[in-house]
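User: Second chain of the day. Same drill as before.
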Amino acid sequence: MTDRARVVVSVTASVDGRVTLGRDRLLLSEEAGSIWRSIWPTGADAASAARTALLEELYAPTAILEGSGTFVTPDAGPLDLPPADHVELYEDYLPAVPPNHRKWFTIVDSRGRVHWDMKGGDGTDLLLLVARTTPASHLSYLRRETIPYLVAGEDRVDLSLALQRMRDVLGVTCVISEAGGGLNGALLRADLIDELHLVLLPTAIGGASVPSIFDGPELLPDTLPTALHLLSTNTTPDGVLSLRYEVIR
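Assistant: Same format as last time:
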C-alpha cells in the first residue's frame, strides 16, 4: 500500500510504440487526427472500450492524467497574460465542484502553456497541476476562469508529490495516465507506474523523433530497466493486440 494514488498507464500506439505521427503533429489537429483515425481497425474501438470497462471494474478511477504536450507543440511558451504578483496565488485553488462531479481531467502544466476553453462536462472536471515556478499571471488566469489547481513542486511539477496530494486532498485512489511519451516517461523514471495497459494497432510509423509510449532521458549506467509481469493478452481478427502488465517491485 502506498501513500499516493495508483497509476495505470493506458495508451494506444502503433506496433512500434509510436503514439502520434510526428513531434509537432498534435492528434487534436484535424490533419493528424484524421490520419490517426484512419489507421484504427474496427477492433481498436472494441479493444479500447474493453480496456476502459476493465479499469472501471478494477479500480473505479477518479482521475485521468494528461500532459500539456497533448494540447500544444513543444515550442509553445507560456500564455501572454496580464502580469500578476500575489503570494496567495501559490496556494491550492479548489472551488466547489458541481453536484454531478465524478472524475478529474488532470493536466500537468507547470509552464502555463495551455489556454482552456473547456472546463469539463458530463461529471468530469478540469484540474491543473502546477509548480511554484508557474507564472503568477497564469495562476491568476486559472482563478478568473474558476479552474481548480494543486501546487506540487518547486521548479516543475513533482509527480510523486502531486499523486500524494491528489489522494490526500481530493480522495483520488487511482489515476489513469493517457498522456504522451514525455509525461509517461517521467512517470517511468520516477518509478510511479503500477500497471501498463496497451492497445497496439497493426501499423508501423517509425521516425527517430516521433513520440513513443515512454520518452525522456536515457537510463543512467547504474539504473535497471523497469521489469514487467504480463497479466493478460487479447487479439482481434483485424490484428489489434491488447496487453496488460503490472510493474514488478
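The beta strands are 6-14, 63-67, 103-108, 120-121, 124-130, 149-151, 174-177, 195-201, 228-235, 241-247.

User: Great, on to the next one.
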